[in-house]
Amino acid sequence: MIEFKLPSLGADMEKGTLLEWRVRPGEAVTKGQVVGVVDTTKAAVDVESWQEGIVHELLVEPGATVAVGTTLAVLREPGDTPEQLASARARIAAAAAAAAAPAVAATTERRVSPAARKRAQELGVDIDAVQGAGPQGAVTIADVERGAAAKTPAPADRARALRQTIAMAMARSKREIPHYYLAEEINLASALDWLRRENERRPVTERLLVACLYLKAVALAARKHPAVNGFFLDGQFRPSAAVHLGVAISLRGGGLIAPAIHDVDRLSLAGLMRGMSDLVTRARAGSLRSSEMSDPTLTVTNLGEQSVDSVFGVIYPPQVALVGFGQVRDRPIVVQGEVRPAPTVTASLSADHRASDGHDGALFLATVRELLQHPESL
Amino acid sequence: MSAGATISYREALRQALREAMQRDPRVFLMGEDVGRYGGTYAVSKGLLEEFGPDRVRDTPLSELAFVGAGIGAALGGMRPIVEIMTVNFSLLALDQIINNAATLRHMSGGQFSVPLVIRMATGAGRQLAAQHSHSLEGWYAHIPGLRILAPATIDDARGMLAPALADPDPVLIFEHVQLYNTEGALSDAWQATDIRRARVHRAGRDVSLVTYGGSLGKALLAAERLAGEGIEAEVIDLRVLRPLDAETVFESVRRTHRAVIIDEGWRSGSLSAEVSARIAESIFYSLDAPVLRVCSEEVPVPYPKHLEDAVLPQVPDIVAAVKEIVSGHD
Amino acid sequence: MTEMDADSLRQALFAALRPIAPEATPEEVRGDLPLRDQIDLDSMDFLHFVLALHERLGIDIPESDYPHLTTIEAIVAYLQQRQRGTVPPPAA
Questions:
Q1: Which residue of A113, A117, A143 to mutate against B (max B Cβ within 10 Å)?
Q2: With an 8 Å Cβ cutoff, is A276 touching chain C?
Q3: Which of A16, A66, A76, A131 has fewest C-beta within 10 Å?
Q4: pLDDT for B33-65, tens place per residue?
């Protein structure tokens, strides 16, 4: 018997709303199959099962918001007896009831006075974004008017929720993580040459972007320098053997998400390109998978398209580093005593000083630089 | 009788009685000890000598009988003023008041009216123990067909009787026992006393204190104390407990967005409950905080002074209630 | 495949753009100004756009021709030439 639980789809996720089931009772579930769609504050995510079984019972109705770890469904395995299933069912129900009781007390009811609600409507203030400073933390007219004075915008729910999520994660990052920053200008002449030649012989469907080379180089460098790859959890750094690169993707409605491409160090460039292309498309369509949301070990952001020279990013907790790439353009470089134009990019590293030192970071960036000099071996 | 002079609440009532009997020969006063003794609270002292035993009549100790006689006299064209010693004893006359006085106009299809005025003392605070300390005006305010007045000021003590007598239907006037000895200047306004409207006694922007009768003074003291802390309380004297002038309350709470009701009656099923419900029903979206009530503890009123004080609404209780709903105030 | 006229090409072009940048409608985008100045297209978006044109029109656009793909009208003109088999001169 398998309890299918709501996975954490990101370190900052506490709960999710089940949007729909993709399976029905009696249906066989295979490993990696999408069994449901869950809305986090960031995106609608396809949640996969990593175990096999027959759907015995769906315990949560679409529309319900439940905490991470809540049992969503029970899968039957060969050999399960009805008695076992029934007793498991009772245990899950008891656990749910026990979880619900303190949750009610913990998630204190939000107090908003009727007059404050009305005033917020008149002023076009988003009442959920207003901090209550009244008796028992209630939102009062005065709070709403303060909020209106601060010109609190009332954007669409999704954009606002995403903004809040980003705000919380970034504020936590800057509060907890002692960042240090390094930057290195990398000559891309050979990489772009190689890329042009590659794309000439590749059909349009298999064309590569320079971002592919960045990701692969970062992944290989991270494998060599594990101090930038992993999580800082419970007061200690836990390096990750796998390299799952989070790819920062800006959304057209505003905000960004950074879902993972798995095992980038082991993917071919073509495979990586397919993964990236697919990820961007799905991220923007709002259909990401649970495994992509939950476990990037290192994030890469490419702001070069917006013509900035370099980016010093904020680390996404509990990760310990973020690699940024700026704009590629011809810049003067010195080769053997001569100034020459060459296409270059500034690669930067924001790293958590609790997990690594500047020396580690410098070695990592140097490795990225060296790898990008030999694109054919990526 | 002139405005400006300092007189007692008792004296103001007496002036009103005297004037009423001087103006209208149909007016007479009856009740226990109102004549030779001058009234239990000495309100009618001297009136027997002035108006004679036909118009100032001592009655037997039977509330049922003399209230009934008052109703009969009113039906017969007189304008009786019946004094019941205290609200506690009015319970003996409940049948006459509620089943007869309040209903006859309606049961006769408008053919009869009962232009009767019943005065009685109400309230606690004089160490008279449980049986003599009730505040039951809220009960009477439940009854259609009655008008219930609660004069809390010298002006109202002086001014309410005449319009009450002019009312073609029964009017009950509740005089809080703690008020008889209070003194104050009579203003010019008493001559135009309106027994349909509540009155704003003190203007304020932060909270509305809604009260009446013996609690008005406490509310005003609380408002004074709150003003020292930067909280401006508006104080409303309901004055007319039935029919309630809710609009005056609404108008105030729409501005202050907060209300505390102070009522010496017990909380459950009280007048304060009615006021609170009306606010919630009609101006819910003006509220910026829950409506709070300061009422008597729900026990029979005790005799010992310290316990009696503890049971009744007091100024610090009002101040505390206000602070509970006015926070973050700068 | 029969040759498409400029209007049909323009329609196909906007249809290719729609899933990538829903805000890019014929009403919003001027045909005579560079596309990437008017809507936020990164290199991945642009690649998806080129792929979509490939799928709809069967025209394979080499990277070296990207400089031709500036304005809507320039892209239409380029696609017409590609349909006729006349390769336009390389962009400056």
A1: A113
A2: yes
A3: A131
A4: 999 999 999 999 999 999 999 999 999 999 999
